[in-house]
Structure formats: C-alpha cells, structure tokens
Amino acid sequence: DGSVVSEKVKSKNTDEKIPESELEGEEKRAEEECQRESDGNLLDVSSHYPRDKHISIQRRLADLKKLADLRGDERKPCPLCPEEKFKACYSHKLHRHLQNLHWKVSVEFKGYRMCICYLSCRPVKPNLVGDQTLSKLGAHYHCIICSATIVRRTDMIGHINRHVKKGETESRFITVCAPKSSYEVVEESSTDVQVLPNHSTPQKTDSYFNPKMKLNRQLIFCALAVLAGERKPIECLDAFGATGIMGLQWAKHLRSSVKVTINDCNENSVTVIKENCHLNKMKVKQNVREEDSDETVEKGEENGDTIEVTKMDANVVMHLRSFDFIHLDPFGSSVNYLDSAFRNVRNLGIVSVTSTDISSLYAKAQHVALRHYGCNIVRTEYYKELAARTVIAAVTRAAARCNKGIEVLLAVALEHFVLVVVRVLRGPTPADDSAKKVRYLIHCQWCEERVFQKEGNMVEENPYQQLPCDCHGSMPGKTAVLLGPLWSGALFCTGFLRRMLLEAVQYGLDEAQPLLKTLVCEAECTTLKHFFTRCPGDENKQEECGVFIRTSNTSAESYLVHGKRKSKEVLRGTAKRQRAEHSAEHPPFYYNIHRHSIKCMNMPKLNKFLNYLSEAGYRVSRTHFDPMGVRTNAPLAQFKTVLMKHSTPTYVAAQAEGPVHLSGEIRVEEELPAAEAVKVEEAELAQDGKSGDTTVTFTQSNPTDRAAD
Length: 709
Fold this sequence. Notes:
The chain is α+β, with helices and mostly antiparallel strands. Among the domains are: 57-125 and 136-166, no CATH class; 494-524; 591-649, N2,N2-dimethylguanosine tRNA methyltransferase, C-terminal domain (Phenylalanyl-tRNA Synthetase, Chain B, domain 1). The protein is 39% helix and 18% strand. It has 26 helices and 29 strands. The strands form ten sheets. Strands 10-11-9-8-12-13-15-14 form an eight-stranded mixed beta sheet, sandwiched between helices. α7 (214-230) packs across α18 (494-506), α11 runs parallel beside α12 and α12 packs across α15 (383-401). The longest helix is centred in the N-terminal third of the chain and has 23 residues, at 20-42. One of its GO terms (molecular function) is tRNA binding. Keywords: Isopeptide bond, Metal-binding, Methyltransferase, Nucleus, Phosphoprotein, RNA-binding, S-adenosyl-L-methionine, Transferase, tRNA processing, tRNA-binding, Ubl conjugation, Zinc, Zinc-finger. Residues 1-39, 683-709 are annotated as: Disordered. This is tRNA (guanine(27)-N(2))-dimethyltransferase. One of its GO terms (cellular component) is nucleolus.
C-alpha cells in the first residue's frame, strides 16, 4: 500500500510540497480499499445488513477485539460476559478468551459470525442447583435476521436454515433497503408490483403481499367503482399500503374518476410503493405543507395518473384529511382505527374494513373477541355470519360516537378474512337508528335455534319464551346462552350488489362474479335460477339511504310488448310490485343441512331441498358463509319437518347390494315415515323370538310374491 501511495506522490511535481496529513489520509484510504476488497471475497452483503446489530454479531475477530479494547496494560472485562462469569483481566488472557470461546463456537451466516453471548439478554428460569449451572443456562445466540435468542448452537443453525428456506434473509427490526436484485415482480389485474422473497410472511417483511386476498381486492375495487359512478372525482385512501397493489389498481383502471392516496407508516414500504408506481408508469405526488395543498391538488387534477404516497400513522392521516372512500386492512383487528375513519369521512361515503383476526372472530379465542370487540361469542354452526355481525356492531358503535349512522352494503366472511363495506349517513338520527339495531342474541345450545332479543330495557321473567324451541322445558338446567351485542339488521344491499356485479363484468373480474351472484341471491333470499330469469328492469333507478341513484339502462327489449312500448303506468306498477317484493330484509342466519340431518336417512340434494322449502311457502336461498347452509325464514322445527319428509331411509338405497344390519338399540320407527314403521315392527317381533340376537336383518320382498300369498 505504501508503494502505491509513493508512486502517486512521485508522479506529481517535485517542487510542490505535500502536507504530511494528506499523505497519512491517502494511506488510510488505500488500506480501507484493500480491506473492503478482502471482505467482498467472503460475501458482499455488508451494506445490506444493519450496523446497529447486537454486539455479539461481528464479521471478523479483529472487530470483536476492538470491541473489547485490548490496547493498554489495564485489566479489561469481556464485552460478552458478565463480571460473575469472567472477571476483568489483561489483554493477552482476554484475547485467548475471545478467540477460544466466543469466536470458536460461533455460527456463520453470509460473512457474519453470531458469537455466543453470556449477557442477561435472555431470561433465565430459577435454578435450585447453584450459580455454576445458572451461568451455563444464560449462554445463547442472537439471530441476525429476526433478533431471536437461541440457546443451543445446533438449534441456531436449524433456525437460520429455516429462514433461508423461506427466503427471509433481511433484518426484520431494522429499516434496511434490500437490493433491487432481490425483488420479485408479481402481476395481478394488469398491475405489476415488486415484492421481497419473504412477502408472504406479514410480521417479517415490509412488502407483505398475499395472493389469497385477490378476491378481497376485487370486491373492494367493485365497491369503489360503484361509488365512482355516483360522483366524480372521489378521494380514496388505502390506509395500509404495503406494496400499494390495491391503490395502484384503483388508479390504473378508474383513472381520473379517483384521487388515490396510499399510506403506510413503514419507510421501506413507502419506498416500495413509490417504485411500484414508477413500474406501472404512475406519477408520485409527494407530501406537501398545508399552505401549498391547493396548488398541488390542481396539478393532480390535470393528470389522472398521479398517486399521492404518504408516510404517516393511519390514525393521523385520517384525522388530518377528509375522504370519500376509506379502506382499512391492518394485520389483525381494525378496531383501533375505526374512530379515526368515521371522524372525517364525507356524507354518503364508504368505509370498507377487512379483519384478518380469524381466531378471535371465529370463536377460537373467545377472550380475545371479548377484549377487542366487547362481544361474547361461542362456536356455532353459523359462526361466520356471527363474525360478520360482530365486526359490524363494532363499526356501528364507532360511527355512532361521531354522530353518524351506517347502511351495510356488503358483508363477506371467508376462510382468510372478514370484509364489511358500509355507507356513512351523517346526522344523529341515522346514528340512533343504527345503534338500535345492535342487540343481543339468544342461542339455544341444544338445538342451535336462535333469535334476537326484543327491543326494550325491561327485564323479562323468562327470556326462554322468546325462543321458538321448547328445549328449556324438556331439558334440565339452563339451555340457552346470551351472545352479543351483535348487528341485527341486514347484511346486504341488493341494488349496490347488482351494480357491483355490473362493474365486475365490465372490468373482467372473473373471481368476484360467482360470489357476487351468490350474494345477490342471498340478499333477495331467492334461488340462483330465479335470479337469472327475473327481469332486471328495475335496475335503472335504485334507492339507497333515501337517495335515488341512477344505474345503467337495460336493453330496449325489456320495454317492448308485441312491438309496442309499455306505458308509464305499467312500468310504475311493475316497479312498485318489485319494490314491495324486495322491501323485506333477508332472514338472519342460516341452517346447515348436514348439522340437522336425520340418522339413518339419506338427505335430498341441496337444490331440491331448496325447492321443497320454497314450495312449502318459505323464503329460501343458499349462503356464501357455508356451502351446505340454507338461509330461510322457516323455524327450525319446520326445517326439520320438511327435511324428514323428503329424506329416504338408508337401507332402502342399499337393498340391491344385500341385507343391511342395524343395531337393535336404534329405534328406527321414531325417525322413519309411517309407511315404513310396519316393517320395523315386524322385524322387532322376529328379533324377540330369537334370544341372544343383537341385529335385525331387512330383506326386500317381491310384490308379485305378496300377491301370490
């Protein structure tokens, strides 16, 4: 290194004098360059890892010695051991200690060494053996990726290997920008986004992207597209941007109809969002001060392909500005952001909430649901709808605190999330009307019959009288439980769902179309066949929240009868009749046909059973909450009656294969129709004549043989 510096010095003019300080600085820079080249031979990742890592994580033994400060003749303590473990000593002894203990048993990963640490970083359980074992139990390693503390070296190696298999090679707690080469490009709905290799782990990445939430993103896009058709332009907010995929889809497809703001509190996520905006040829609008806000809005109106990216807490950005459309999708529960969302949302605006805390909402962690939502729930056959009504109740209370009411437009509960979309109605009167719909639910634990508690504050002597079943009289003890408070109103708005379906067809959202068709049928409580054959002439004008909203016109063929246009009176009468038909809300909750199946009986097909209930005079439809669920206004007793009437005995279907043996303890005559009870009685008489027999054999007799007898 000195020769290199001397050659540079000789090449200059000999008459020119160079200060000694500059020569020393040039020599130091040359040494640093050589040291950097030697480090690059190991693995050039030092710039991508945090500098303020734990002191036990070092690249070279020399760095560990510098940490101990071995210069001088004074006694120095070990930086990785407490005083009771290793007392202060001279430099030569401390050097051997660091090399033979900490550095020798370290774990290497990408040029870094995770040395064993004896400091009080990890809590040690109380030990009865003594202090010698106590110091041994305190040894541990610090993970460079997730900052976890692992006791054994083999466990630490396995821990690092699991991170590598998942693609998690960056620190989780320190904000570090990953190199561009490590990004992956994912396409969804004609929108490209860059994500990290560990994008599927929300707690360990800054660019969380879940492909399983594609249906959720499509439903929210359809809701925003419907709102954009009512008024233009609208200001919409994606409060938790992550990769910015949702806001990019809004801006790319709806163009000048929306002014998109994508927010995230993580600096790395904001960087990724800006890069994804440039990837999709979108201009980024930076944060500005309030006095310059008017000028920036005018510039944004000139170009519809501009997205505003903010780095704030979600509560802060919703307190500072007003929006027409707000979407909340935090990791877990969203109850901490509801008050801020309803404080500044505009009248007749829309708030959509996605909750992913499935364990608490689906009654797997009931104490968490009570803590977050203030709601008592249990695991029932209709637990998914119970989760949706729990979230809506929390949304209603948050809106009522801001003197605002809600109208539920959509409520979806699937495997990974619960989505609720509501329209905001400003004023104390709508707030009071919405708050009155939050009531308790009486649930029978024997037959799973349920009914919402009646309105009023008076205490009833026997609340079991509200249940249609008589389980309390026939069963000992308390048979019912009080659940809630829950939302007792409608979960769907038919007109809004129909317009969402039109938007899904227009933009080619194939995954959302089947679900929206099911939701429309569920909102009207009708079958899918009736939904397609019904004339859609009333879609030209929909009434929501007391406001008439125009929608797309239907074809002229629906207004023609034998070559003549219908008169206005006929059209008015048809609309009035259809409005009266859809005025009744859909029945709350549903029944699972398998849950209430009859023993030793074959149930009818689900679609046939829906027709049987409809012929009996009840409203009936399928539900998206449960593929085998039936939403109907029929009581549970009538539901079981119709099911038993159209079920066939199990042995009748299996007679062609041979005799079927049933247990003698089963009393089949209680569940079979009266026409089959005679056969059972004859079989039981035959069983009584034979001692020790425990089964009854049923054989099929030929009708011609009976006639001969």
